[in-house]
Design goal:
GO molecular function, one term: riboflavin synthase activity
Enzyme class: transferase
Pathway: Cofactor biosynthesis; riboflavin biosynthesis; riboflavin from 2-hydroxy-3-oxobutyl phosphate and 5-amino-6-(D-ribitylamino)uracil: step 2/2
Strand order of the largest sheet: 1-2-5-4-3-6
EC number: 2.5.1.9
Protein name: Riboflavin synthase
Helix content: 10-25%
Strand content: 35-45%
Number of strands: 12
């Protein structure tokens, strides 16, 4: 479980393919605090640490994860938003994030807003999935590349988020351009409400 408050950007230092899986090795500042089997969010995807050596740690992404996320596009040198799992005795500064990415979206527009930046993302609309809570609502929460954000101007298949300068400088939003593919996770609360509604109809 995560909060969507990114700790820092880790750097991909090596990628190794094995059967349908990909092993990613990354460097970050808290490498000495990690342990095997620990869960870390990578661009919003929860992955397990499987190895630690040579000042880097390794996680493995299976085919389903690769198919549903932008991790398949990573290459050495890329920056990845990382967050360790929440501690139950801390404040929830973002929102409840599972680290189970629902799919990807494409950046369609970037606008300056007097210091902050508006990013508009578009995703494939699926009516059946929307009925199960896979959509955005105005002033609701959404996770983009692991960052907890507030939705504005949602449509059937798109939404906009406003990025403050601090978030822009300290996450990989600074590398997003028009056409970039990002990971999105819809709010788990919306999914539960949609499921409850379907059971009481």
């Amino acid at each position: 479980m995560f909060s969507g408050i990114v700790e820092e950007m880790a750097t991909v230092v090596a990628i190794r393919k094995e059967h349908g899986n990909i092993h990613f090795s990354l460097e970050c500042s808290f490498i000495n605090e990690l342990k095997i089997d620990q869960s870390i969010s990578h661009n919003g995807v929860c992955l397990t640490v499987v190895n630690i050596e040579n000042n880097s740690y390794t996680v493995t992404a299976m085919k389903e994860t690769l198919d549903k996320s932008n991790l398949r596009f990573l290459k050495p040198g890329d920056k990845v938003n990382v967050e360790r799992s929440m501690k139950l005795n801390e404040r929830l500064d973002g929102h409840i994030v599972q680290g189970h990415v629902d799919g990807t979206a494409i950046c369609k527009e970037i606008k300056d807003a007097d210091g902050s930046t508006y990013f508009t993302f578009e995703y494939d609309f699926d009516k059946a999935m929307a009925s199960r809570g896979y959509f955005t609502v105005d002033k609701g929460s959404v996770t983009v590349n692991g960052v907890s954000l507030t939705v504005c101007n949602p449509t059937e298949n798109s939404f906009t988020v406003a990025i403050i300068p601090y978030t822009y400088e300290n996450t990989n939003f600074r590398y997003i351009t028009t056409g970039s593919v990002v990971n999105i996770e819809f709010d788990i609360l919306g999914k539960y409400i949609a499921r409850l509604h379907s059971l009481t109809e």
